[in-house]
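FORM 7B: Structural annotation worksheet

SECTION A. Query
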Amino acid sequence: LERRQSVTIYRMRLLLLLSLAKFVLLSDVCHDQAKGDQACQAVEDDLSLASSLGKNSRGRQQPDVRITSAGHLKWQEFDWKKYQAKDVTEEDIKDPMKRFSVNVVKSAKLVANRAVPDNRDEACLKEEYDTDYPSTSVIITYRNEPRSTLLRTVVSVLERSPEEAIKEIILVDDNNDERDVGTELATIKKIRLIRNEKREGLIRSRILAAKVATGTVLVFLDSHCEVEPGWLPPLLQRIKLNKKTVASPLIENINLKTFKFEPVSTYLRGGFDWRLDFFWEWLPASDRAQKLRDPTHPVASPAIAGGLFAIDKNWFEELGWYDEGMDVWGGENIEFSLRTWMCGGRLEIVPCSKVGHIYKKSTSYSFPGGEKKTLACNNWRAAEVWLDQYKALHPNSRMYNETVC
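SECTION B. Predicted structure
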């Protein structure tokens, strides 16, 4: 009897020690969030997660990440004024553009759910879309992004999307300098936070988020966007009609100094040259004629800008995601455009879906191998894989190779 009691006491002590160890090993995310009435989010402990991420095409092991489950606050309960105020320093007041390549002082003064214009054609307002929406995961990666622009991106999605369509918003913190930029947002309902413990770049960060996403449709947005009214149903409708469609909204400009919306022409599509540089070009005559007859008509596009699009998750996986061997960002949109068309898919720009986007003149983060080399190597990889005998026309085909890149 005494022996049984000793074994029981030993087991109880062991369980207690294991429980304490688990508590101590919880992410900093929890300690940051366990303030006031903000409950600590759980760090998802999925042993199959690491193996599901696998290796990338450069043979690297799965990234070291922490994934936080969704919070419990409505965004309206979030102290957004206090959150945005953290962005502004004395140096920013002297030069508002220097640190983030946007007017951070002006941005911090804007309300999180500011009114945005509805620039859709009147014909779009008459369109009817299916309301049995597929579950949607919105993926936003960020590094050294102002809190205010990131928050407006998140709030615009929550406020201007059908609530039943948005299953989750996955924020990927690509080893941001300030950890609490994401951990504070992770207290909001539907937001899951992924923290890269070392920098992976936009491309691999998006792949990581896509693999752990639970929605049947993935929507990628940049961290400095604001969606306009009615933006999501037109994208989901195109994918419902054809699972192999990659649907891109019409991207309008948000002025990086004043943050005013600047509408763009609906008669544009994406293109690229032999350098694999992206540009906007006018629609061919046949598409222009079609749009005159029906302004809601989606336009097939040789390429998409890359930052903003919706895709069926299974189709994205079948395509092989992005090229994980590409670094940071740049060129992945052309590579993915070539991959989609040549594997039987389709790229469309959907005019009844509009999203505002800040086009920064420079990035607020560095490229580990240098910006010029990173972009050149990314483009070289795309040319090497997809251009076949035409890769000789690519300017980097002789200057760059597997050894250099």
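SECTION C. Observations
The CA atoms of residues 39 and 183 lie 12 Å apart. The longest strand covers residues 346-357.

SECTION D. Sign-off
Analyst initials: ____
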